[in-house]
Structures are given as structure tokens and as C-alpha cells.
Amino acid sequence: MQNKLELIPGLPKRELVERLHYHQRQGEISDRAVGFYLHDMDKRKMYEPYENAAEWARNHLPQPQRERPDKLILLARRLEKLPLIEAAFNSGEVPWTKIREIARIADAESELFRARNNSLHAACRIMPRKRPLSRHFFLLHAA
């Protein structure tokens, strides 16, 4: 599997902005795909001789990862139980930053409405919490 990247300097502003958004989204999709496949590897115990899929990833995938492999696996496990929220991400309707935070605290698919219709800060504030938000959440998403 090989991807080619074409980088074009001097694009008009509209096309430049479109490409920035496109490549940002590709990074989000990549994180989701890595988490999905590592979780699949973990479930099927295909990581031997390592202890788990996260350890396998640390030894076989290029570093540095934007997200730690263990966090991507945990998120994949949670999204497995939240198929409507996963589908909203897959369709591009809800961004990765929202999905990551919502999956940490969501109890049911009804949270999809809140994910679609509230800012990340508001969605997380009104959802019942399984545990406190990450300490960096308010620094990263204050607005």
C-alpha cells in the first residue's frame, strides 16, 4: 500500500484552505484507522511475541504518533459500543476532537444529538460524566 502526495505551492486562497481542511481530516481518519486495526489485532491476539497491540505498535509503527496507541485502542473499543457516534465521525459530520471527548463520557447513542448540536465544551458539560474531563480539555477547547 503506497500513497503519493502532491504538494502545490502558490494555490489561490480558496483552494489552499480546502486543501488544509482536507489534509486535517485525513490525519483524523488515519488516527481512527490505526485505532481500529490495533483494536482488531488486540481482540484476535495477533500481536505476539509482544504483550499487547499497543506494545506491538510502539515497536513497529513509525514514531512519534500523534496519539498513543493505547489511547487509540481504547477509543476504538468505546466506539464499537457507540455505532451511531462512529458513523457520524465516518461521514465527517462530527469532528475527531469531539468524538474523542464524547466517547470518554457517553453512555448511550442519545449523546449523538448533543455531539451534532452543541459545541464541544457545551456537549461535554451537559453529558453525564463517567469520569472527569481530561485536564487539557478546557485549555485545548476553550472558546
Structure notes:
This protein is mainly alpha-helical. It folds into 2 domains: 12-80, no CATH class; 82-143, no CATH class. It is built from 8 helices and no strands. It has helices at 13-43, 53-60, 69-80, 83-90, 96-105, 111-117, 120-126, 137-141. Helix 1 (13-43) packs across helix 3. The chain is flat and about 50 Å long. It starts with 12 loop residues before the first helix and ends with a helix.
In short:
By secondary structure, the protein is mainly α. It has helices at 13-43, 53-60, 69-80, 83-90, 96-105, 111-117, 120-126, 137-141.
What are the salient characteristics of this protein?
143 residues; mainly alpha; 2 domains
Topology record:
Elements: H1 13-43, H2 53-60, H3 69-80, H4 83-90, H5 96-105, H6 111-117, H7 120-126, H8 137-141
Helix pairs in contact: 1-3
